[in-house]
Write the structure tokens for this entry.
Amino acid sequence: MPEVMYGGRQGERLQLEVDPDLVAVRTRSRRSFRDGPVPGPEAAVLDGMELVLEFPEVGVEVYRRRGGADRSVAEVKEALEQAPDTRFAGNVLVDSAGQPVLYTENLFVKFRDDRPAEDCRRALGEAGLRIKDELPYATNAFFAAAPEGSGQEVFAIAQRLLERDDVEYAHPELVRQLGRRAVFPEQWHLATTSIGGQSVSASANVAAAHALTQGEQVTVAIIDTGVDVDHEEFASAGKVVAPHDASSGDDDPRPLPGENHGTACAGVACADGVAGATGVAPRARLMPIRMVSQLGSQQEANVFFWAASHGADVISCSWGPADGRWFDPADPRHGVRAPLPDSTRLAIDHAVTQGRDGKGCVVLFAAGNGNEPVDLDGYASYEKVLAVAACNDRGKRSVYSDVGDAVFCSFPSNDFAFAAEGRPAPLTPGIWTTDVSGTGGYNPGSQPGAARGDAKGNYTNAFGGTSSACPGAAGVTALVLARNPELSWDEVKDVLRRSCDQIDLEDGQWSADGHSPKYGHGRLNAETAARLATPGQIETVVPTPASRARR
């Protein structure tokens, strides 16, 4: 097991181990095998592999083997090693938390201050190292390279150097992602993770997309109940823009008691990811718009005009007509059509055609939680919005999620056991996201290990419904626009459509043209969406099948 000593022979010991499901590849050209106008045959080798880490400045990518992939990790490495552009393809070390730690064939070495510099240089040469730099910030400190191909031998070289009396510090150069927003372990909707000892692999592949974009310079409007803009996850400089309370007519969108919904939705979309939860687009700006007016009111229409006029790029709406009880097929509300008022329709039209300097805002609605036809919902089924359904932590439709032709896509959310349909209990309580700070939200806070989230009450672990799925998809939309802000709203829609993975192939009722009444075009794959949106790359990525508590 490789290990590193920081602080010298008596310092801190960092132990690493090989993750058998990871492979690292470094190209000579510093280009990804999956990029380019026409990807080469190496791209096919990476089918079934999920990008988890990327260092484009040095051409290094780390991939994880997905369950059910045709090739083993050893076979992937062997195939990649044959590619002319491959400089290295090999194992990946992880720390005790399972996070990848890349090692280079370089070492940092510092000799005692009283040693002659020439003796230090001679010792490095005798160790087989080439001096790349004599570091000016410490006496007798060197950055040196082992011979190419040394691999994990650099750990042994560092250990031998540390055994010398004249060496104070020696360790390989270890590389981790800089400044990446954390994907917290509970957030299974962002990346494959383990919760309570149970592996959960039903994410929207968001963590991989963060190697490419995190939603920079994009504004996501959350039209909902009040949002706790004082929350620690919305505290970064410039995070909150154009806050508005449409119901009170002022610029304070903070929630009143009992208004927990909006804070959770905002967190799913774009929480900073620095304290307890990350959003799908953690560096996107948040435009919180409090609206508690009844359905069909003029205030409802006004907020779309207001959002578009104040710089919103994406508008997320986790609300709509009242749903029937999902577990009661006799509920008469299941068959009631709720039309979209002209006042609201025209305001949405304005946002879609005039927003973003004419390129159009992208408007998303939660599909609904009634286990009923979404096409009866005039809001979610309107042709100029994207209706987002919910899928669960097993890669199946959440039992409550509405269905129909108008479903555009799906995004991970919570679920329930339902014996009447043979549905097992979900693997997780739901979606981990921001909650109204302190004791006033969904999670009242308690001792460590509280069932409903963190002990302080700043986060909830059980948000869900298509309410959660909608801002999740809005976050993916922000990633797309950050990657290519010149896309029009319908071009964004097309990118999202083509980025979807078909899931639940046996029971998804997939049509010949690739649409399911349960999942729309499929479960969003954030990494695919980010790559599809890249200028000049629009046609290069072809997605393949993956192997609202509304108020």
User: Anything to note?
Assistant: The chain has three domains: 3-11+100-175, 20-91, 193-210+218-476+492-527. Confidence is low (pLDDT under 50) at residues 538-551.
